[in-house]
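The protein record passed on for reference:
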Amino acid sequence: MSAPAGDPVIIHTDGGCRPNPGPGGWGAVLRQRHHVREMFGGEPAMTSNNRMELMAPIMALEALTRPVIVHLHTDSTYVRNGITKWVLGWERNGWLTAAKQPVKNVDLWQRLRVACERHQVEWFWVKGHSGIADNELADQLATRGLQQALEAAVPS
C-alpha cells in the first residue's frame, strides 16, 4: 500500500455508559481542513464503557472512504494502550492476555485492527473534560448516542 498523501484527518472520539455496565453511546468528530463530520451511535442493551470507547474509533475509521493519515485522539488509555502496546501480543498469543486469560472485547479489538490497516494512524491520549473543543464535542455526541439508544429501547 502506498503512503496516503495530504492533510491528516483529525479524529476525536469518546464513549461511555450509564450505569457501567448498562446502555451506552459513542461519538466521533472527524476534521480535515474545513470539512467536519460528526458521528454518534449507541447500544440500548448491556454494554460497557470500554466497548463504547472502542466503537467510536472503529466507526470513525470505517467511515473513511480512502486511505489517509489519521491523528486519532481518545481520552481512553485502555483504547490507546490496547492498540499501540498490547494488541500485537494478544494476537500473537491467540487473543490471550499475559495471564493466559481471554482478551476482553476481542471482537472489537479485531475490528479496530482491521480498520487501522487501511490508514496511517497516529494515536494520541487527551485528558477528558479538559476543555479540548473536539473532545468535549465527542463527549456530547456520545451522550446523544446513548439518549438515542435509550429512546429506541422504549416501547411505543
